[in-house]
Amino acid sequence: MFETFALQIPVIGVSAERFVVLLLAAFAGGMFGASVGALPSFVFTGFVVLLGETAGTVIRQLEGVDLVTAGELGTGITGSIGFGPFVGPHIVFAAGVAASAYAGKNAEFDVDGKNILHAFGTRPDVLAIGGVFGVLGLLIARISSGIGLPLDGVALSVMTTALIARLAFDYPLIGTPAGDGYLDMTPFEKGTLRGDGSDRLAVEPWLPQQYEWASVSAIGLAAGILGGWAWLVTGSFFLGYGISAASLLFLQLGVENFPVTHHITLGGSSFAAVAAPMVGGSEPLILVAAAVGGLVGALLGEVTQRVVYSHSGTHVDPPAMSITIYSLILGVLFLLGVIPNAAYLGL
């Protein structure tokens, strides 16, 4: 029996024993995500990533500390906990999204399928849904990494599980635009209803305070520069991401007009790292590249929310879609030899 557990699982890249442990942890993490809700669980992600990246950065500054050891400490907290079964967004956030999708079709709940702020407590059926999607999220991320896809497997998993939830709970995969195409937000601006007897808007932007092209571009430039600056002074790709994710506590608490920026700060740090050797280490040019990365992340988030999010009845995460797309672009360009590195992808 123990010899069987020592066997490696193909593609996943771990022993059978560790694989069983990961599945159990992912199921529990999914239950946790459904219990506390999608956005609250992602706030936990932010704080844990912030802790892990800060720990690694501080230890690297201490004299006499081996850099490999310091890096392993920061990476261990970030990778194993922040992006692992406990609070990894592909597990807990994905589970919370699926729980809301399930509740949106269940007359026992008074919860909209797009509501990612809602905590479901201890309902066994909802927790079971969360557990299943937690395992699914783990598998998608692990398999994408195992087969060598040149992208962010966590973001891909968050996006894919949300689309699967739409199909599983009988929502339109993309939906039908009410205006002049998928990018048209004027039905929202006019207050046009769906016409199905409900009071739901025909087009529902992801963030009513963050959908106009000019405002999206402005926050993209600003947060991108800050993400690049964080990388420049600490070497951490995810410190800015952690700050952005943790800041969503204020969105959860109802602070009006609060922006969502983790896909932007990660774009900034990634583009900064790619540009650094190309511009000879020039710090002003590195921050220009970071601004471009933030702008790309912000605009991709807006395009994807208009196409995929706004016209159906559940949450498909625009930041996850944005990160998936630009990480794939960076990964492919690196493999083609066009850019000198693939940022945080480890290719």
General description of the model:
- The protein has 347 residues and is mainly α.
- It has helices at residues 2-5, 16-36, 38-61, 67-82, 89-104, 124-146, 153-168, 186-190, 213-234, 239-252, 262-275, 283-309, 318-335.
- Helix 9 crosses helix 11 (262-275).
- The chain is globular, with a radius of gyration of 20 Å.
Provide a compact summary of the structure.
With 347 residues, the protein is mainly alpha-helical.
Main sheet specs: none
Low-confidence stretches: none
Q: Give the N-terminus to C-terminus distance in angstroms.
A: 36 Å
- Shape descriptor reads globular
| Overall radius of gyration | 20 Å
Number of DSSP helical runs: 13
Instruction: Give the fraction of residues assigned to helices.
Output: 55-70%
Beta percentage is under 5%
Mean pLDDT: 93
Give, in order, the helices and strands: HHHHHHHHHHHHH
Topology, please?
Elements: H1 2-5, H2 16-36, H3 38-61, H4 67-82, H5 89-104, H6 124-146, H7 153-168, H8 186-190, H9 213-234, H10 239-252, H11 262-275, H12 283-309, H13 318-335
Helix pairs in contact: 2-3, 2-5, 2-6, 3-4, 3-5, 3-10, 5-6, 5-7, 6-7, 7-13, 9-11, 9-12, 10-11, 11-12, 11-13, 12-13
